[in-house]
Specification:
Length: 601
């Protein structure tokens, strides 16, 4: 039976014995006679042989298995340890090969050498290699539900830590730095391989799994005020402000200086109070929104041919760099340099200490994220028989549906590690057994299941239920409430539509959509919508006779219709400015809209 052969999706010929052909090509590849980049497979359903050698395929290395025996022997491993063999040698000798998704379909891969049977074609180098670096940092990851493992991996990328040792001389955009980062008690082998001690991103805390007066429902967490005062999850936020002296046509140039009072757009002396003689702020100045950080003046925007001879129009305009709405901090570092064009460049870095507050986001390494719901005095928090007060109270309702068993195992492991004074190996597929941890915990004088008798901090009464308590590695994420809090009553509007500006940085409005409108109606507050929807209310004069927009002359205090003249009734009609803008745009398309007016009553 002949089979069609496709190379990179193109038909290249027919083969009589497909299985023998595929085996022969694989054999030649393992000997190095055929390119190592080539992958081949026989698709039985469609009786086709597919060969792929194109770019952009994800491929992974596996150990070849023959007759149920791995080709990688202890002798090879000894040679690798003695640097007598390299990775490339193993591929050349046909011990390891790379498979893509296509060829992996026809492979049977064993996790461990003891699982090998005569049917297996390949063996994993390590089961850990099937996941990414960040995923392999999750301890006891093989006990987790897949979605949560994925989330735990992503969360670690957003955690605050020690990102670079030379952070003091860098001007990075949004930098968060955890002040006292620690190594986790429960680790995986990747922590050692990736040199995690050089860039840790979290802290070990005591966690109790229980509800506390409803303030940790919906995934939020309760945090101990005393822990925050001792420095738990304290971080620093750095942000640079940059300006340069631009050059314009006609030899004009920006100037970094303290602006003179005759400059167009001059603010007030109070706004420039921190600037020194060169127009740049000094380090360690305490600044808040509206303060000028770098003073700058620019030439007038539009210069016509005759303006060069006109003294009156030569006034420069103010273009200083100021702190935006809602920003504050301390000037940390001032850098004077020049860009590629040789123009003067000034960079100022602002520093702000961030102390955990209600609304800041935290997570464990298992995708169990939540925001602080309440900060409680240690005197009101529950305490254990040995006098331990937890740093964080985690809600038990996040466990059953999400099935993050590794979250619970890490708590037991962290407890054992902190009591025994050692690190716990939590590498996925190759970790310290849960039973061994329980036995060790029992030998250290605690209950083997990780629970403890706890007492109500407010009344002193013993809780009827035993509370699950343990040590855990918690991460503070970059999503802090100080960067996101936003509200507005009145403020700036856009020039074109006269509607509020957009975004937190521009002090913008909060949009009320269709669904929000429905909630007001449902609450019987429909009249509130009138106020909500008139952000761009305007009054337009309309001709009663023809319905076209009339003209109102403010100086002469007369109104007239452009088509009917001034002998008709003209009424001011309330409408949205955006609607008036739409009518104006229709006029530009030579469509002349008219309004049919009716009495309100």
């Amino acid at each position: 039976m002949t089979s069609e052969v496709y190379m990179n999706g193109k038909f290249v010929g027919n083969v009589d014995d497909p299985i023998a052909f595929v085996n022969q090509v694989r054999g030649e590849r393992r000997k190095g006679m055929v390119s190592n980049n080539l992958n081949i497979t026989y698709v039985q359903e469609s009786n086709e042989i597919k060969i792929e050698a194109s770019k952009g395929r994800v491929r992974r290395p596996l150990i070849i298995v023959k007759d149920g025996v791995s080709l990688l022997t202890p002798g090879h491993i000894k040679q690798l340890e003695n640097n007598e063999l390299t990775w490339d040698d193993l591929i050349k000798h046909g011990i390891i090969e790379y498979l893509d998704a296509l060829e992996e379909d026809n492979a049977l891969v064993a996790f461990f050498e003891e699982d090998l049977t005569s049917e297996h074609t390949h063996l994993e180098i390590s089961p850990l290699s099937m996941v990414s670096i960040t995923t392999s940092l999750v301890p006891y990851g093989n006990f987790n539900q897949s979605t949560r493992l994925n989330a735990g991996s992503k969360n670690q990328k957003q955690a605050l830590g020690f990102y670079a040792a030379n952070y003091l001389v860098r001007m990075d955009m949004d930098v968060n730095l955890l002040l006292n980062p620690q190594m986790p008690i429960v680790q995986s082998i990747t922590h050692e391989i990736s040199n995690y001690a050089k860039h840790p991103a979290g802290q070990n805390v005591v966690v109790a799994v229980m509800s506390y007066e409803g303030y940790n429902m919906e995934d939020s967490i309760i945090i101990n005020k005393a822990s925050i005062e001792r420095g738990l999850a304290r971080s620093i936020y750095y942000r640079p402000m940059i300006t340069e002296e631009l050059r314009y046509a006609g030899g004009l140039i920006d100037e970094i200086c303290v602006p003179d009072k005759d400059v167009k757009g001059y603010r007030s002396e109070k706004d420039y109070k921190y600037l020194e003689g060169d127009g740049i702020i000094y380090p360690e100045a305490l600044v808040k929104e509206g303060d000028v950080v770098i003073g700058k003046t620019s030439p007038p925007r539009f210069l016509s041919g005759m303006d060069e001879y006109n003294l009156a129009s030569s006034t420069r305009r103010e273009s200083s760099t100021t702190l935006k709405h809602g920003e504050q901090g301390v000037i940390d570092f001032v850098l004077l340099t020049e860009n590629e064009e040789g123009n003067k460049l000034v960079q100022v870095r602002i520093r702000e200490q961030r102390i955990p507050e209600v609304g800041d986001k935290f997570t464990s390494r298992h995708g169990q994220k939540g925001v602080i719901g309440l900060i409680v005095n240690p005197t009101d928090l529950p305490f254990s028989a040995s006098g331990i007060v937890p740093d964080i109270i985690f809600s038990p309702h996040g466990i059953p549906s999400r099935m993050t068993v590794s979250h619970l195992i890490e708590m037991v492991g962290g407890k054992v590690g902190s009591l025994a004074g050692r690190y716990i190996n939590g590498t996925s597929f190759d970790c310290e057994g849960e039973q061994a941890l329980r036995e060790e915990l029992l030998s250290l004088g605690f209950r083997e299941n990780g629970t403890e008798t706890m007492y109500n901090g407010q009344t002193g009464e013993k809780f009827h239920a035993r509370i699950f308590v343990g040590n855990m590695y918690y991460l503070k994420l970059k999503h802090m409430v100080a960067n996101k809090i936003h509200s507005r009553a009145r403020g700036p509007i856009q020039l074109l539509t006269r509607q509020p500006t957009e975004g937190r940085a521009k002090e913008g409005g909060l949009r009320l959509g269709e669904m929000e409108k429905d909630t007001f109606v449902a609450h019987g507050a429909a009249l509130l919508l009138k106020e909500r929807f008139n952000s761009d209310k305007t009054f337009v004069p309309v001709c009663e006779t023809c319905g076209s927009i009339a003209i109102k002359d403010e100086y002469k205090n007369i109104s007239y219709c452009p088509s009917c003249g001034d002998s008709v009734d003209i009424n001011e009609v309330e409408m949205s400015y955006a609607f008036k803008l739409l009518m104006d745009e229709l006029k530009s398309l030579c469509i002349y809209p008219t309004l049919k007016l009716k009495n309100k009553y």
